[in-house]
UniProtKB/TrEMBL annotation, chain A:
It comes from the Eukaryota. It is found in: Nucleus. InterPro entries: WD40/YVTN_repeat-like_dom_sf (IPR015943), WD40_repeat_dom_sf (IPR036322), WD40_rpt (IPR001680). One of its GO terms (cellular component) is nuclear pore outer ring. This is Nucleoporin Nup43. Transmembrane segments: none annotated.
TrEMBL record, chain B:
One of its GO terms (molecular function) is structural molecule activity. The keyword Thylakoid does not apply. One of its GO terms (biological process) is protein transport. Gene3D superfamilies: YVTN repeat-like/Quinoprotein amine dehydrogenase. WD repeats lie at residues 16-48, 298-332. Pfam families: WD40 (PF00400). GO terms for cellular component: lysosome; nuclear pore outer ring; Seh1-associated complex. This is Nucleoporin SEH1. It is found in: Lysosome; Nucleus envelope.
UniProtKB/TrEMBL annotation, chain C:
It comes from Chrysodeixis includens (Soybean looper). Transmembrane segments: none annotated. This is Nuclear pore complex protein Nup85. GO terms for cellular component: nuclear membrane; nuclear pore outer ring. Functions as a component of the nuclear pore complex (NPC). One of its GO terms (biological process) is mRNA export from nucleus. It is found in: Nucleus, Nuclear pore complex. GO terms for molecular function: structural constituent of nuclear pore. Component of the nuclear pore complex (NPC).
């Protein structure tokens, strides 16, 4: 079947979009988080065909959970629980009912002003989750590790950065990597009581923000970071310091990246320049398995050899988020629309 | 299909200002998120938008020993800074400090410190304005005795130190002033317009005429700064404005070759000033700096006009006059100006109930059937 | 090509509507007002006095009135239209760019249809919302939006037919009929119902004859004939005569192989035949059939008699053209419009005026009328833009100067500026302003730098958008303001970082704040930043100094005293340190002077001594004495050691 792209205008800028995993059936529902509006919210949607016989599915809103500030990140802590970071500094854990997705989201935990400048507001810029733990970062340069199960603060690295932090990723249970406004990356050993990074390096010479970080699903020592300039950097943490590869990719900031859950060789990226690309990373990840022989690494500089494809024609506004489930990709954009890509080959 | 033509609907909210005397000026900050008010009660108040359409009082202090005439915000690049001027012959510079430990901070009250007091004037200081930010941190004041003073903070970190750079006597009472906001320093030197509220007695006219520099009895003067002579000089006097001037304002330039100046006098005027190239400007030995043209004169207020103001892009002009009306003027695409809305007060018949909250929510304004508007057949 | 003069007054001698007067709420006693502008079109009206009243007025007015425009397009359901049409608008600008080199009419038509489908989707959305809405007031406003967008689509469609579509032979009739059928689908359901039932004696239905006549007027001759056959007297001679007349009506087709001239002759012949049948009075017993015959011969009185059955004259316009001048070209519809509009003394609606002006080809008047629609300029902007790009709009002012592009630009600027006021729609507004140089980008600069940026994410997005459109002044202005805010909040790392982004002297300010803070509190802020900063350091001397100084701290902490010492001496001797920092800098030498292993050479020591004396004002007496002592001691031990070792010591 040919690739099918369908946009739905939803009257709010979508900053985060997430499929809600299903056990035995195809995913049908998803979360969105909005930003840059007078009132923002987390919504639950379902895909529906308005007429039985029709193939086309449209998103229909099931519930709305208004929040104060922008939704800056949504990550799952459990199958039906999400951790949500907000630009007013709050962090919440919300639960969607497994049986009735139409019922309102339930607030499990609420950390008020987790990030702050004293009395003044400070944005909680992002978070990452791993096995129920939540790592949050903020413009205040602090890192907090929260328990998504017990609702307590397990560890705080205050003053982790003198600048604002913009991206975070769990490398393993005891280790996170953060990226700041200048693309300064720091690795933190959460077992250490010292507020000092275990390692640090720069994303690129242009000193622009690290907008997102992910690691490879099967080779967790391989870390990728997207930059505000649109470039993409790859590190092998077994050989830290400079990025092994830095490639000029999008024409404006990389907003989100995801390895395809079914195919670890495939990377999806979206950008502020309105692009949604898929990358075939096979060459890179394969050769990197050879630990001792550095020269066999495929240079990332050449975009073409990476097999980059545009999944959808570029939008005139930023694509802020993507989430992929098998052959279907959801995107949320600044033109107040959700895009559903179907029949995507992976 | 009558609904098709209901254009220009407005809604309004009411804010209870709680000044103990008449309000003289209201000024918004650069973002339109904060509002400062000043009054004859000698107080200045600062209001912050709560993000949901409401306004919250965050500071209120006695700023002067006389009526406070004007309040104005500095560019946010210089911090949270306002300047005030008063009947007490001073102008003052205030800075908000992020002191969260002070009393009242838990109630959301902020502290403003007086950073400097400008005491050079011997008469009431009638207007104060910060200069365009590309010129640095400049402040201009004018006073009833007709002296324009330009101050500069040489170190933008130190708001306590202001040096009086220029003192320009005008010999007439000055009521208002406006900086030309043009960003192009190359084509437009720093420029100020000042307006005089000197009444038109024969005596006063004679004084002005005796001023050799300008054989003109207009009430609006243009001053420009010359980089070479490092002086401000009067480069024009607008002969077309003969009546006392209450307010004036330059429109944002938008890259145009000419400037638009709105003047509140016995009517609302929009005056176009087009700089003449140096070479062609020499006329009988005297330099003519501008081609001056009155592009609009609205007499709809039928009375004295007190205030004029432009919106951010200079596409709408608001004027208020003695006729209890605020009018909005808009430029049509062929540069004609047209009144697009009138806001009128219905005189009170009795005491209206006091507001229980500092601000109300927005409600649609009722439109009045215009008696001049005949039903359409 | 449409040409019209534009003076101050709109055309047709209609005086421009006087400005509306609004009453301020909460009656207040004051007579005098002041006004102050806020963001966008928001402003405040406040009661004020001009003179100082010594006595406090009896009643004091202390209320401020914040006034703003109530913008229809900001309602969530219409934001979909705003966003979706923005995409089409941008495609249109690209197509217009491409059409400079080759003809792009097909693309324009495609985009025009896209606009119409967007309007239709919007109308459907509104209808669905209205059907679900339970609140009466909200339902009413939704209904009025439906009316607005329904009319917009109707006008747009007609515009597309008359000015954008490529019509073979310019014969407009089939398109006109299609327009009428689409927008005024009168009797369609009844006709379908009757045909489906297919029962003889359908005239029992009260609407039977109205439906038959309606089908004839809509040019659906086949349907009319099929309906006539369902009449119980369908087989009678009278019916057969009418059926025959309808069947034999010549239909023009560009591809039919005959010229318009030939067609006109045969059509006139056919109509003459019909006329003679009618005058033979064979139909006298069947007034309804007679009416049909009178219609198809284009009898004005016949049309006049049925006009009252329709809500508007548009319903019969297609029929009128069909039966009076089927060969009409696009620009020849004015007379037909006048004839149809004149048939009933119904009050003229706004839609009437727009359709009339369109059919008369007076696009300028159309745009003038369209501007009166309360859709906040959405329609006027997009319609004018597409007509302008199609080359179908030509507006002259009273001096015969072509002002078309000015009209188009002013509408786009207005619409773009309006959207810039909205918290979320600003990026849409920006793309309109950016497409309209030179004034658009200037307006965008003013509005963009005034956009409140509560978070860095928003600041970064504003900057990205500004960069995309080449608005560099906004990039630095926003960065400077974020820098100033960070500095005011004591966040010096953030301040330095944003200063570097602003690429301005602001960096020096922030660097200075760092040094001052260190001099006062002894903890150097933002070390992680300073040690990794690259070219940003070259922005200012102070920043460069700060970076080097920070490096000194790093070396010192990692106990590389020799290197640290060298760096410190170079910082002292280069004399780039700001005045207020000399004390700190000189005192920093103390621990190195006192270290077990000598760190400074005798030459270094001389240099430090020299600086100490030159800068005696920076250091208090006691501290200076302490320094002198340490320097002397160090000089003693180093001279000794250097003298012992190499020849260099002797120099």
């Amino acid at each position: 079947m040919p690739l099918d792209v369908q946009g739905t205008f939803v009257s709010q800028k979508i900053n985060k979009i997430r499929w809600i995993a299903e056990d035995y059936v195809e995913t049908k529902c998803f979360f969105t988080g909005s930003w840059d509006d007078d009132v923002n919210s987390v919504k639950v949607w379902t895909l529906e065909s308005p007429h039985e016989e029709e193939e086309i599915e449209y998103p229909r809103q099931l519930s709305e959970y208004p929040v104060e500030g922008d939704v800056t990140q949504i990550k799952f802590t459990e199958k039906n629980k999400i951790a949500v970071s907000l630009s007013n500094g709050d962090v919440k854990v919300l639960e969607v009912s497994v049986y009735d997705k139409q019922s309102p989201l339930r607030e499990i935990f609420h950390w008020k002003k987790m990030h702050n400048y004293g009395e003044q507001k400070c944005s909680c810029t992002s978070l990452d989750t791993l096995e129920g733990d939540i790592a949050t970062i903020g413009e205040d340069g602090n890192v907090h590790i929260l328990s998504g199960r017990r609702g307590e603060i397990m560890r705080t690295i205050s003053g982790a950065d003198s600048c604002s932090l913009h991206s975070i990723c769990f490398i393993k249970h005891s280790e996170v990597i953060t990226g700041n406004l200048r693309g300064h990356m720091k690795i933190w050993d959460l077992r250490s009581t010292e507020n000092k990074p275990a390692a640090s390096f720069l994303l690129a010479g242009d000193e622009l923000a690290a907008t997102c970080i992910i690691n490879h699903p099967t080779q967790p020592h391989i870390v990728l970071a997207g930059s505000e300039s649109g470039s993409l950097a790859v590190w092998d943490l077994r050989m830290n310091t400079f990025p092994t590869s830095l490639v000029n990719a999008h024409t404006a900031g990389v907003s989100e990246m995801q390895f395809h859950p079914e195919n670890p060789h495939m990377l999806l990226t979206c950008s502020v320049s309105g692009e949604l690309w898929d990358w075939n990373m096979e060459a890179m990840t394969k050769s990197s398995k050879d630990q001792n022989n550095q020269v066999t690494w495929m240079p990332l500089e050449d975009k073409k050899s990476m097999m980059v494809n545009s999944v959808i024609p570029p939008l005139s506004k930023a694509i802020n988020t993507l989430h992929c489930d098998k052959g279907r990709i959801l995107c949320g954009a600044d033109n107040e629309a959700i895009y559903l890509v179907k029949n995507f080959k992976y | 299909m009558g609904e098709l033509t209901a254009t220009n609907l407005f809604e309004s909210q009411t804010i209870f200002a709680d000044h103990k005397d008449l309000i003289h000026d209201v000024a918004y900050d650069f973002y339109g998120e904060r509002m400062a008010t000043c009054s004859s009660d000698q107080y200045v108040k600062v209001w912050d938008s709560d993000g949901n359409g409401g306004w919250r009082l965050t500071a209120s202090w006695k700023a002067h020993h006389g009526s406070v005439w004007k309040v104005t915000w500095a560019h946010p690049e210089f911090g949270q800074v306002i300047a005030t001027c008063s009947f007490d012959r001073t102008a003052a510079i205030w800075e908000e400090v992020g002191d969260t430990a002070s009393s009242g901070s838990e109630k959301g009250l902020r502290t403003w410190l007086k950073r400097s007091n400008l005491v050079d004037s011997r008469t009431s200081v009638t207007d104060v304005k910060f200069g365009p930010k590309h010129l640095g941190l400049l402040l201009v004041t004018c006073s009833a005795d007709g002296i324009i003073r330009i101050y500069e903070a040489p170190d933008v970190m130190n708001l306590a130190q202001w040096t009086l750079q220029h003192e320009i006597p005008t010999k007439v009472s000055i009521s208002c002033l406006s900086w030309n906001p043009s960003l192009s320093r190359v084509t437009h030197p720093p420029m100020l317009a000042v307006g005089s509220d000197e009444p038109n007695t024969t005596n006063a006219a004679a004084t002005v005429q005796s001023d050799k520099a300008t054989a003109c009895n207009g009430k609006v003067f243009i001053y420009e700064y010359s980089e070479t002579s490092r002086r401000w000089t009067r480069t024009d006097c607008l002969a077309s404005v003969q009546e006392p001037v209450n307010d004036l304002a330059f429109a944002p330039n938008l890259g145009r070759s000419f400037h638009l100046l709105a003047v509140a006098t016995k009517d609302v005027r929009i005056i176009k000033l087009e700089p003449i190239a140096e070479s062609s400007g020499a006329n009988n030995g005297a330099m003519v700096r501008f081609k001056v043209e009155v592009v609009a004169a609205f007499e709809e207020h039928y009375s004295c006009v007190w205030r004029v103001g432009w919106n951010v892009t200079g596409t709408l002009l608001a004027s208020s006059g003695d006729d209890c009306c605020v009018r909005l003027w808009k430029m049509q695409y062929l540069n004609q100006w047209k009144c697009v809305a009138v806001f009128k007060n219905e005189p009170a018949t009795g005491d209206s109930p006091p507001l229980c909250r500092p601000s109300t929510t927005y409600t649609r304004l009722a439109a009045m059937a215009n008696p001049a508007h005949m039903p359409f057949h | 090509m449409n040409t019209s003069n534009f003076g101050l007054e709109p055309l047709r001698g209609k005086a421009s509507a006087p400005a509306k007067t609004f009453i301020l709420p909460d009656k207040c006693v004051s007579k005098h007002f002041g006004c102050a502008w806020g963001q966008g079109n928001k402003f405040t009206i406040y009661p004020r006095s001009q003179t100082v009243n010594k006595s406090t007025p009896k009643a004091l007015d202390n209320r401020l009135f914040n006034v703003r425009q109530d913008v229809l397009l900001f309602t969530p359901i219409l934001r979909k239209l705003v966003n979706e049409s923005n995409g089409t608008f941008l495609s249109l600008q690209k197509a217009a760019e491409a059409s400079k080199t080759n003809d792009n009419q097909v693309e324009f038509l495609k985009l025009s249809r896209q606009f119409r489908s967007i309007i239709r989707v919007c109308t459907e959305g509104l209808q669905e919302a209205a059907s679900k809405e339970e609140d009466g007031l909200a339902k009413n406003s939704l209904q009025s939006y439906i009316t607005i967008f329904y009319s917009i689509e109707c006008i747009w469609h007609l515009c597309e037919i008359l000015f954008i579509d490529n019509i073979p032979g310019d014969i407009v009739l089939p398109y006109l009929l299609e327009w009428v059928r689409f927008h005024f689908p009168c009797h369609e359901q009844t006709a379908a119902g009757l045909l489906e039932a297919c029962e003889r004696g359908s005239e029992e239905n009260a609407e039977y004859w109205d439906t038959v006549v309606g089908m004839v007027v809509q040019g659906r001759v086949d349907v009319a004939r099929a309906l006539l056959k369902l009449h119980s007297a369908g087989e009678s001679n009278e019916f057969k005569l009418v059926d025959n007349s309808l069947r034999s009506m010549p239909v023009y087709s560009v591809y039919g192989g005959i010229s318009t001239g030939e067609f006109t002759i045969s059509w006139k012949h056919w109509q003459a035949e019909c006329r003679s049948k009618l005058s033979s009075r064979v139909l006298a017993s069947q007034p309804n059939l007679e009416l049909i015959m009178r219609i198809i011969i284009g009898d004005y009185t016949a049309f006049e008699s049925i006009r009252s059955k329709y809500s508007s004259w548009f319903d019969i316009l297609g029929g009128w053209v069909l039966f009076t001048a089927p060969w009409s070209r696009r620009h020849e519809l004015g007379a037909a419009a006048a004839a149809c509009a004149g048939m009933a003394p119904a009050p003229r609606s706004h839609l009437d005026d727009m359709v009339r002006a369109l059919l008369e080809g007076d696009l300028h008047q159309v745009i003038h009328e369209v501007q009166q629609i309360s859709d906040n300029g959405w329609f006027a902007t997009h319609l004018t833009d597409i007509l302008y790009h199609c080359g179908k709009l030509k507006v002259l002012d009273k001096h015969q100067t072509n002002v078309t592009s000015r009209l188009r630009d002013s509408l786009i600027l207005e619409y773009g500026s309006l959207l810039m006021e909205h918290k979320s729609l600003w990026s849409v507004g920006l793309s309109y302003l950016a497409s309209c140089p030179p004034e658009g980008p200037r307006r965008a600069e003013l509005l963009l730098e005034r956009m409140p940026v509560e978070t860095e994410a928003k600041a970064m997005r504003v900057i990205a958008e500004a960069k995309k459109h080449g608005l560099t002044s906004v990039v630095s202005s926003v960065s400077r303001c974020v820098c100033a805010r960070a500095q005011a909040g004591g966040r010096l790392g953030g301040a330095l970082c944003w200063a570097a982004r602003a690429l301005v002297a602001g960096a020096a300010r922030a660097a200075r704040a760092c040094l001052t803070q260190y001099a006062a509190r002894a903890a150097l802020p933002a070390q992680d930043l300073l040690l990794t900063a690259g070219s940003a350091m070259l922005l200012s001397d102070t920043l460069l100094f700060l970076g080097k100084y920070c490096d000194f701290h790093r070396l010192y902490k990692s106990r590389e005293f020799k290197k640290a010492g060298q760096l410190l001496v170079s910082l002292i001797t280069s004399k780039i340190a700001p005045d207020y920092f000399w004390e700190t800098l000189l005192l920093d030498t103390l621990p190195l002077l006192e270290s077990d292993e000598p760190v400074f050479t005798s030459n270094d020591t001389y240099e430090i001594m020299l600086c100490l004396e030159l800068r005696s004002s920076s250091l208090e007496g006691e501290k200076a004495d302490l320094m002198r002592l340490a320097l002397a001691r160090n000089l003693a031990r180093t001279s000794l050691a250097e003298g012992d070792g190499t020849d260099e010591g002797g120099q």
